[in-house]
What we know:
The protein is an all-alpha fold. The protein has two domains: 3-239 and 409-478, no CATH class; 327-397, no CATH class. The protein is 68% helix and 2% strand. α1 (3-23) runs parallel beside α5, α3 crosses α4 (84-109) and α4 (84-109) packs antiparallel against α5 (114-130). The mean pLDDT is 90.
Amino acid sequence: xxxxxxxxxxxxxxxxxxxxxxxxxxLSAGMFDWAEPGNVAAALAQGRGFSxxxxxxxxxxxxxxxxxxxxxxxxxxxxxxxxxxxxxxMLALTVLxxxxxxxxxxxxLAPFGAWMRGAASVAFLAACxxxxxxxxxxxxxxxxxxxxxxxxxxxxLGAGRPxxxxxxxxxxxxxxxxxxxxxxxxxxxxxxxxxxxxxxxGDARRLLVPVLAAAAAAVSVGAxxxxxxxxxxxxxxxxxxxWFELHLANVDSADGLPRMETVLRRLPFFDTGEFARYCRxxxxxxxxxxxxxxxxxxxxDPAHFAGNVLRRLGAAAVFCRRxxxxxxxxxxxxxxxxxxxxxxxxxxxxxxxxxxxxxIDAPPSLERQKxxxxxxxxxxxxxxxxxxxxxxxxxxYRGPGGMALGFLTAGVPVVxxxxxxLFAGGRxxxxxAWAAVIAFGMLLPFVLVNHNxxxxxxxxxxxAVAVGAFARAAAGLLARKPAPP
Length: 485
């Protein structure tokens, strides 16, 4: 067994152990937030078609990307809709997907030395296992994004080799699947195809590889767009919610980085008023209702929109703010208090399970004053619960660990990438250069429209390559350093 294969199996075992450690205490049907893809998957498994992202029989949708929903629907057909068995099966798929991403990284980086291969693998496994809210803790698209992005890197490196048939086949497969996963991966695959086509422009035989990959992407987008046109009566190439996302991040949010409470108050999945409006209008009309105010806001202050883009770029490449949004309540509210708090905007009611404090990051002195003005029956109890949740919030997201994590998931990999080029005489190793191209493509749509810490998770594989490139370059620099006299 070769070193890469041994490390791949070791990594899979480590991921499985980490997944069990994270999830065994709560391994149940509710261990995952099935969210919109899970609702669509349930509709598919129950014969209602690709529909109902927010439940409630609202009809056909293009709100979510199809690939994650199709995978979950297959799991539901085998293990039951949103059952504990389905949750366990999804956890197993997540581990296998992340294990495949690690194996692809090891294989792609093997020709570039043990330092790059080993450091990248360790960085990737550590990020998957240790980053709070990472791909092993929440059911998100990241578990699919990561193996696809690693496969794209493997394909980009392999397609250019003399016998690059497997790399070409992988590029074709990723180009076909990427648009069905998310816009960022679609852009990344497109950039890889363009770079390969540009570098092979004089070789008609080699040029066939990126041409076929582009054709695969066109077929994928065309087929999904045709389905959307038939089901929704509108041309929708990838997802339908562009205007909603643009409005959420650039109108509802002052700085272009919407906090969780902003999302909770706007997304029909959580807000009953928005859900009622979505049901009444239908998906396309509902999304279209955000176009005019979003366009008006951008035209009125284009400089502010440009600032939002720069702030999102800073979040992606320097410091990614992590925040838990509304914090769950523990208090059993006195009669009438919950309604007063919800009406004032302090609480997002979540039914019998309680609610979420909506302004948990507000200045405590201002919150204390607001609580006093509401006329609550149990003001002391409500305030004590809010204050306890605020202290826990600060400790987790604003303490040294939270601050360090913000840099580790954004700025540190970028610095590692730049230093790897500096140490190597101004040139990036091929895997690092491809990782930079892929990461840029994966981030571009979200930096332009709406970015948060959730959009950093799919970058873990490419960030690990940056760490590996730094380790390789640093080891090479030390090896060239003359021994002291």
